[in-house]
Amino acid sequence: MTAADILIIYLAFGAPIAVYKFLQNRDARIVRRCLITVATFLFWIPAAVNIARLYISNAYFGDSFVSPVDPDASEILISDLRADVRSELVRLGAGVGMHDARDTVDRYVGLASAIRNDVPLGGSAHENLFEAAGRAEFGLGVRCVRIRNRQRLERHHIQSRAEFLKLLADAAGSNESDAALKSALKLARQLGDTEMFDGVRDLMTGKAEVWNSESKQHSQSLNVIPVIAATGSLNSD
Predict the structure, then answer these.
(1) Are 28 and 80 in contact (CB under 8 A)?
(2) Mapping DSSP to helix (H, G, I), strand (E, B) and coil, where does residue 1 land?
(3) Contact 37, 21 (CB under 8 A)
(4) Among 78, 82, 130, 219, which is disulfide-ready with 138 (CB 3.0 to 4.6 Å)?
C-alpha cells in the first residue's frame, strides 16, 4: 500500500464527518461553515472522537439520545446573528446613527447573555469586601449583594430590550426590514428571551397586517374605477 492509498483512505473517513460538521453549523455564516468543514475534512480524528464520546454518553449514560448543546457553537451563532442585525439596521438607517445602532444591539445582547447564562455578579470581590470590614460571617451579606446586583442587571436588561424593540419598530416601517426582523427573531430565540421574541413577532405580524390592508385598499380602488366609468357612460346616454 502506497502513501497515496493511505491518504485516500484517510480522507475517505474524513468526508462524512466534514459533511456532518457542515450540517451541524447550518445557522452560521457560509464562510465560517466552509472553513470549519475544510478543517474537519483534513483533521477529522478529534471530531470523530468527540462524536463517539457524545454517542456513548447519550446512549448508555444519558436519559435520552439527545446531544448536548455546544456552548461554543451557541456563542458563535449569537455573534453572527448580532452582526447581521447590526448591519441590517445600519443599512436601513432606522432613524439613528451607526454608532447608536451598534451600541443598542451590543448592549442588549450582552445583558441578555448575562441573564441567560446566569453569570454570578461580584464573586469573590464581595467576600473580600466583607473580610476587609472585619465580618466573620458574611455569607448572608454576599447573597444579599448578589440578589441586589441581579435585580439591577434585570432592570438594565428590560431597558435595553425596550430600546432594541423601539429601534426595530422604527426600522419596521421600511419595506426592506424583513431581514433585520428575521435575524432579530432568531437572536431572541437563541438568547432565550421570550418577551423579546414575542415583541419582534408582533412587529412582523403588524407589518404583515399593514401590508395586507394596503393591498386590499389598492385592489378595491382598482375595482371602483371601472364602475365609475361605466356609470358615467350610462348617464351620458
Answers:
(1) yes
(2) coil
(3) yes
(4) 130
